[in-house]
Automatic annotation (TrEMBL):
The keyword Membrane applies. PANTHER family: CELL SURFACE A33 ANTIGEN (PTHR44969). It comes from Denticeps clupeoides. The gene is gpa33a. The chain crosses the membrane at residues 167-187. Keywords: Membrane, Transmembrane, Transmembrane helix. GO terms for cellular component: plasma membrane. This is Ig-like domain-containing protein. Residues 70-156 form the Ig-like domain. It comes from the Eukaryota.
Length: 204
């Protein structure tokens, strides 16, 4: 009703302005302080008593433009020879939704193609059977029609590390071998002393 004003939800209180011109039949809706929640379809519906002909409504899509927030880059997996790893890149905000692209650089900061068999899909870069040649810098660009933002990670591929269990087993084995050798040495020394004592007794 024009007398009481439009019905407005609490979330839009103070942010909605509706201007109605009865002579021209125009209605203007103004939304202030836009947020991402307004990314939606908006429908205008007209109700005229006893008028059932024609289309009673029209709709449009409101797109709120927001630049991508600085993305976050992460390495997921073990960065050792012959392993498979993933690199992730994501912006928390951005409208329209950002697109992502990874660029690889050598350890000397020279651009290079992504490794063979690598896949780069929606911010997820998958690397397979990595080696020392895979080491370098990886830069992810998050971009939409407003602007772009980047993040980067450093990948250092290392030889396979010794497992903790293997190290413990090796130490125990070394200790056992050491004790056996020590026991043999003590036994030989004792036998030699007994032999020398027996020979001295015989000569006496």
């Amino acid at each position: 009703s024009l007398d009481t004003g439009p019905d407005v939800e609490a979330a839009y209180a103070g942010r909605i302005n509706l201007r109605v011109s009865v002579p021209t039949g125009d209605v203007a809706l103004t939304i202030m302080k836009l947020t991402l929640q307004e990314n939606n379809k908006i429908r205008c519906k007209v109700q005229i008593p006893k008028d059932t002909s024609g289309k009673g409504y029209a709709s449009t899509t409101l797109v709120v433009l927001v630049a991508p927030s600085p993305p976050v880059c992460r390495i997921v997996g073990t960065t050792e020879y012959f392993e498979n790893i993933n690199m992730t890149c994501a912006s928390e905000e951005g409208s329209p939704a950002p697109t992502y692209k990874w660029q690889s650089y050598t350890v000397n900061n020279v651009p290079r193609p992504n490794p063979l068999k690598a896949t780069d899909v929606n911010g997820l870069l998958s690397l397979y059977n990595i080696s020392i040649d895979t080491s370098g810098f990886f830069v992810c660009t998050s971009q939409n029609k407003i602007r772009s933002a980047t993040c980067n990670v450093t990948l250092a591929v290392m030889p396979p590390s010794m497992k903790l269990g293997s190290v413990g087993a090796a130490l125990i084995a070394a200790a056992v071998i050491g004790l056996i050798l020590a026991a043999i040495g003590i036994y030989c020394c004792c036998c030699r002393k007994r032999k020398e004592q027996s020979e001295e007794y015989t000569m006496g």
